[in-house]
Design goal:
Layout lengths: L4 E4 L14 H10 L8 E7 L2 E6 L9 H9 L1
Antiparallel strand pairs: 1-3, 2-3
């Protein structure tokens, strides 16, 4: 997978798939739980018990803690 596209299949911090109703919920999860800065989110897509997060292409975030944690979550 590209280094800016992540497929997330498991949720953390008390979230469960019934909590995800729309792409807005996915974006909220990314912001609050994965700590992805809003300015780096390009697109989110919902699937059945998974979602895809696409980040804007930038090298500046590759060493940030949230990016390293995101790689571990995917």
């Amino acid at each position: 997978m590209k280094d800016n596209v992540f497929l997330i299949r498991s949720l953390d911090s008390g979230w469960d798939w019934p909590d995800i109703y729309s792409e807005d919920d996915v974006e909220l999860y990314c912001l609050e739980e994965l700590e992805v800065p809003e300015e780096h989110i390009d697109e989110v897509k919902c699937y059945n018990n998974a979602f895809q997060l696409t980040l804007k292409r930038q090298r500046s975030y590759h060493n940030d803690d949230w990016y390293v944690n995101l790689q571990r979550s995917a």
